[in-house]
Amino acid sequence: xxxxxxxxxxxxxxxxxxxxxxxxxxxxxxxxxxxxxxxxxxxxxxxxxxxxxxxxxxxxxxxxxxxxxxxxxxxxxxxxxxxxxxxxxxxxxxxxxxxxxxxxxxxxxxxxxxxxxxxxxxxxxxxxxxxxxxxxxxxxxxxxxxxxxxxxxxxxxxxxxxxxxxxxxxxxxxxxxxxxxxxxxxxxxxxxxxxxxxxxxxxxxxxxxxxxxxxxxxxxxxxxxxxxxxxxxxxxxxxxxxxxxxxxxxxxxxxxxxxxxxxxxxxxxxxxxxxxxxxxxxxxxxxxxxxxxxxxxxxxxxxxxxxxxxxxxxxxxxxxxxxxxxxxxxxxxxxxxxxxxxxxxxxxxxxxxxxxxxxxxxxxxxxxxxxxxxxxxxxxxxxxxxxxxxxxxxxxxxxxxxxxxxxxxxxxxxxxxxxxxxxxxxxxxxxxxxxxxxxxxxxxxxxxxxxxxxxxxxxxxxxxxxxxxxxxxxxxxxxxxxxxxxxxxxxxxxxxxxxxxxxxxxxxxxxxxxxxxxxxxxxxxxxxxxxxxxxxxxxxxxxxxxxxxxxxxxxxxxxxxxxxxxxxxxxxxxxxxxxxxxxxxx
Length: 586
Fold this sequence. Notes:
The protein is α+β, with helices and mostly antiparallel strands. 35% of the residues lie in helices and 17% in strands.
């Protein structure tokens, strides 16, 4: 992975001291709140319901063990002992004191981390497949290109004040694990006829108030032109994007207003002026960045399938974990392991300082000292020796990170919701827990097969509810919390947006609604058919009829969610809300 050089380190260190001065001036009354707002946002600091929230950048979701330990120490020293994994592969801490944030940034800088551009109307964290570089189905490793874009976009003077926030995702595997269809720019990397990387661009995707699937505007671009074409897109957006209405400021609105064809024409005209500019990527620079992502020194070990098969026969729990949490590695004798944060009773995506320390230790003991954050709010160890999988499973289970539910119903993607976020209309975490408690029997989940269930507390869609196979959206009805349910969304290659079933439900009714949806699925599915395919085959009407039958949970009319604070205090999470556990690092 990329390591800072002296210039990088000096830049980040100076940014820390600059923000320290800005914070001191604000606390001294020399900066007004509106003046300080943009300064703190440019350094990842939000004002939430109960306390500030600091979003820490984790470029393309990749951490070293040293960095993860630093995050654990920050959570312990400046927060309440946990961090939250976001759907953009970052980490958030929810309880920092405003005056302590410069010290946190200094601690991050010591391990080559920062919070720059994790908020504000700028290019945000560039994301990719959490298995990049190790996946058996990978065509091109996307990480070097993510790093090139990160360096290009960090405080790019032309794009530091865009009409709205801007998100870029890249995928280089046969299967799209980066949700490129629902980003402002999504890039598919493949090999051309000359066996060189080629880039296909999708533009204008996104979720939020106006969910849209991205439109293809160019295919087969050579890697030399990656940045010039990106710059052309950003220039067109920066020039023509709406700035008078933040709800119409995203590039998806511009593409729709112009039409994809007209937008492409404007981008191409801009690109022809840029394509041979100094922003064109030299081969030497691509090679320099790619060298940072050379594979670790793998051991020459044979495949351990026979040993693992015997262990799986001996232990059904280990067998289930292997089936759902372990993915094939491109290197013989190795595997990719996803550590689920979705234990019942734990807010999805939350990890304690003890768990972070343990995962850092496991990454060194069983792998290459590297850890990833997935879009699904789980942790990933990318280079685990197959012979160590049994021991890792035991340690992960003892640390509440060994749930065999990756890709199943209780592997819920969930935003912090009304417990923390000032924009939320409703709580998300209690809904996730209620669903987990109702359906946490492994045999039942395994029989259902893969189901993505996503929950958002407001229309901003941080929980990506639009692309959940089952999506749940919190809405506000005259000061009460209700939930709309949609089905049929998907974030992968055949991306689709879910369709709302109808009127919204009270919180207590949501598990019953989910159960009725699943009853229709199990009654209608064909042999081997997964939930998403059943929905697409039979449509939403059978599900709607069952959910809204006379004996169904009471419902209220559909309402338009409002992204405003509803003025009710959110309850703090108590320590006894988390299942008791003993974390063993080794």
